Amino acid sequence: MESLNLPGFAYKVKQVNGKPHIFDIIRRKFVTLTPEEWVRQHFIHLLITHYGYPKSLFAVETGLQYHTLAKRTDIMVLSNHALPFLLVECKAPFVAVTDATFAQISRYNFTLQPQYLAVTNGMAHYCFQAVNGQIHFMDDFPQYRDFNR
Fold first, then answer.
1. What is the model's pTM?
2. Are 7 and 125 in contact (CB under 8 A)?
3. How far is CA 29 from CA 23, 49, 98, 106, in A?
């Protein structure tokens, strides 16, 4: 896997049926190591190690209903009151973060209404708040101590 614009971490990889799998500390199992999963695992470790998020508040690849469509969130961090706090959409490093990426996470915002949203492809990262239809980009990701719900 390629280097990302995210801090490294001590990861476990093994082969399953000839395919690489990486251990996900949230789901507590080995999952297929795709380029998107590589980004997701780095971002999970970033939030835990550098921003102080407890593992117990994470939900990874959980389902949601958007109108009649079944969708799946990459990373959702819940508040201490079990409300969506931060929603992260991960893309593979070779997938550009475009308006379509922001539109995708905006659809999830419509349903889940987290306090913060983020998109990353492991190289570029954006965090923002959607308030009353307005997007407010942030300089950094919120620290766990910033939970105010």
1. 0.88
2. no
3. 6, 20, 31, 29
Return the beta strands (E) in 11-140 as ranges: 13-16, 19-24, 29-32, 58-66, 69-78, 84-90, 116-120, 125-131, 134-137
Query: pLDDT of the chain along its 149 residues, tens only?
Result: 789 999 999 999 999 999 999 999 999 999 999 999 999 999 999 999 999 999 999 988 775 544 455 557 789 998 888 888 899 999 999 999 988 888 878 777 777 788 899 999 999 999 988 777 778 899 999 888 766 54
Whether 121 and 51 have beta carbons less than 8 Å apart is answered as no
